[in-house]
């Protein structure tokens, strides 16, 4: 694998020129900028990266508290509900491969696919750069759309990728043909429409307390001092979470982002698969952890506290989740 990331313009024109072309190029640009800034797409070998001013990708601990927990949920669902043992897994929309890599480290035989050739190049390079542990399954990557896959698998995984497909019903119908007779579909997907004003107000309070203590990333990091100011902050945070963008951003991460809301995805999933498990995911930490500032001891303590509160608050119904996990059996 060359040190240079190649782009999706080098892929076949039949999808480079289609609706997938702009989507692929958006993720090419995204991963290329991140790699250039020092991002390492590997949960176990992550490094601190100041490029991420508010995202959990900023620090290895934050990564473990959020993305590490996602992977642990996947592995637990697979182990508990799919009969145990090594599985063949197709990771659809694998991005830079950090989830695929962890599944292979757990002994599974993983194929990761993505329409972003630059993401696949980064994934292959990281896979080959580190020595893998004993018990490593296998891991292959391909820069291609789902429609080009012909093999069958025990599990199809959509790790925050199904909502990028314009027609989830058609995508899930295709997914069924790629599963063995006793296969499963596993996903974690956004349900941002559940995030209400009272949820945004909790995040506004957390960020304001951090700002008042000089522990939040924004400069000047001033907290609101009036009810009206607090209400305006909460409204802005609600938009930020529901639309997956900061105030200065005119669009989300890619042209096809948030094609379907959580309710639409869940309806399509339940129509195509027998529901085995449904779990609420995290609420707010993925857009808070990276914004904490201060010395290492303080930031790590606050990060652990907020992650614990996020899990408690979601499980207790005190705050709504922004993501959900679904495991379904082919019927």
Secondary structure topology:
Layout: H1 13-16, H2 20-36, H3 60-81, E1 88-92, H4 98-105, E2 109-114, H5 117-129, E3 138-143, E4 153-159, H6 168-177, E5 179-190, H7 197-212, H8 227-243, H9 262-272, E6 273-280, H10 296-316, E7 323-330
Parallel strand pairs: 1-2, 1-4, 2-3, 4-5
Antiparallel strand pairs: 5-7, 6-7
Helix pairs in contact: 2-5, 3-10, 6-9, 7-8
Radius of gyration: 20 Å
Main beta sheet strand tally, sense and closure: 7 strands, mixed
The neighbouring-strand order within the major sheet is 3-2-1-4-5-7-6
Terminal-residue CA separation: 40 Å
Write down how many β-strands occur, each being a DSSP E stretch of 2 or more residues: 7
Helical residues, percent: 40-55%
What is the count of DSSP helices, taking H or I runs of 4+ residues?
A: 10
Mean pLDDT over the residues: 93
Strand-and-helix sequence, N→C?
Answer: HHHEHEHEEHEHHHEHE
What shape does the CA trace take? globular
Please report which band the strand proportion falls in: under 5%, 5-15%, 15-25%, 25-35%, 35-45% or over 45%: 15-25%
| Contiguous uncertain segments of 5+ residues | 1-6
Oligomer: single chain
Structural class based on helices, strands and sheet pairing = alpha/beta
């Amino acid at each position: 694998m060359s040190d240079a990331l190649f782009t999706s313009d080098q892929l076949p024109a039949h999808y480079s020129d289609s609706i997938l072309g702009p989507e692929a190029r958006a993720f090419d640009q995204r991963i290329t900028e991140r790699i250039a800034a020092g991002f390492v797409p590997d949960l176990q070998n992550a490094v601190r990266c100041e490029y991420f001013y508010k995202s959990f990708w900023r620090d290895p601990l934050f990564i473990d508290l959020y993305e590490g927990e996602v992977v642990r949920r996947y592995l637990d669902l697979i182990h508990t509900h799919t009969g145990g043992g090594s599985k063949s897994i197709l990771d659809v929309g694998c991005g830079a491969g950090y989830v695929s890599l962890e599944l292979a480290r757990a002994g599974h035989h993983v194929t990761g696919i993505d329409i972003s050739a630059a993401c696949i190049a980064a994934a292959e390079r990281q896979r080959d750069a580190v020595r893998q542990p004993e018990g490593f399954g296998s891991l292959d990557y391909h820069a291609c759309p789902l429609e080009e896959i012909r093999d069958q698998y025990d599990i199809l995984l959509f790790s925050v990728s199904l909502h990028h497909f314009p027609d989830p019903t058609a995508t899930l119908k295709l997914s069924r043909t790629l599963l063995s007779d006793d296969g499963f579909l596993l996903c974690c997907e956004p349900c941002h429409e559940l995030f209400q004003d009272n949820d945004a107000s909790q995040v506004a309070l957390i960020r304001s307390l951090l700002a008042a203590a000089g522990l939040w990333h924004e400069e000047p990091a001033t907290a609101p001092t009036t009810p009206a100011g607090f209400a305006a902050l909460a409204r802005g945070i609600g938009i930020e979470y529901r639309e997956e963008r900061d105030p200065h951003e005119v669009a989300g991460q890619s042209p096809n982002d948030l094609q379907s809301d959580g309710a639409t995805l869940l309806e399509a999933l339940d129509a195509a698969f027998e529901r085995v498990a449904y779990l609420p995911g995290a609420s707010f930490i993925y857009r808070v952890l990276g914004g904490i500032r201060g010395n290492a001891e303080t930031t790590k303590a606050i990060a652990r506290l907020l992650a614990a509160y996020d899990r408690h608050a979601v499980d207790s119904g005190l705050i709504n989740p922004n993501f959900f996990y679904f495991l379904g059996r082919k019927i």
